[in-house]
Amino acid sequence: MVVKSVNITRITNLLIVISAILAIYFGLYDHRKLFMLFKPLTTILVIALLFFTPKKSNVPLGRMVTISLVFCLLGDVLLLFKDYFLMGLVAFLTAHILLAVSFIQYRGFYKNWITFLVLFGMAGALFFWLQPWLGDLMLPVSIYMLIITFMAWQGVGLYLREMNNVHAWIAMAVLFFMFSDTLLAIAKFKTPFYFSGPLILATYWMSILFIANATRRIVLESKE
């Protein structure tokens, strides 16, 4: 059973990487229809890592993270269309809230204020730098940045509290998520930069892939 689970995980991860590479390629060379196929497909495959976790596993973290990834998928689809940017932002905002809640439920609220000052300091500097270009989206963007930074604070806290490989994956994941959204904000509100699309997608999928694999490991190790 363990060997079978490992094989399924490896195969699914391989399919995710292939799908992500294809999505990035088609997006880079403006193959719109194929990009619209492989972008959501990649996130669906990430969700599959948790969806097919053995049913006897009973960890709330797994369920909450799965739901958050579904909202990421919704955000992926909405952001394919410029007119739905704000709705996509709301979908990802919901995903970040669910991830933060899942981390707190899993190991409790993290209270290290040095980490808080570092993460919120970087987010605040980015916000004030982008502020002149935010326009009517200043309020939703500020709320979004507060929530994702809070989520990252709790995710990094898991590793600082208990330093193991699984928590390291989560810490890297939340930092990749912040980095991806930083690149997206710069590209959208300040100025698009060379290779911004591939970098945004690559760091985003690395983030949710690390989160899904870490959560799957936690769930399997906690199986009843």
Kindly describe this structure.
The protein is an all-alpha fold and about 220 residues long. It has one domain (about 1-220). The protein is about 85% helix and about 0% strand. It has 8 helices and no strands. Helix 2 packs parallel to helix 8 (about 195-220), helix 3 (about 60-80) runs antiparallel to helix 4 (about 85-105) and helix 7 (about 165-190) packs antiparallel against helix 8. The longest helix has 27 residues, at about 1-30.
Whole-number mean pLDDT: 92
Global shape? globular
Kindly state the percentage of residues in helix.
Answer: over 70%
Low-confidence regions: none
Q: Work out the strand percent.
A: under 5%
- Secondary-structure element order, N to C: HHHHHHHH
State the end-to-end distance.
Answer: 14 Å
Main sheet properties: none
Number of strands: 0
Global structural class: mainly alpha
Number of helices: 8
Number of domains: 1
Evaluate the radius of gyration: 17 Å
Brief descriptors of the model:
mainly alpha, 224 residues, 8 helices, globular
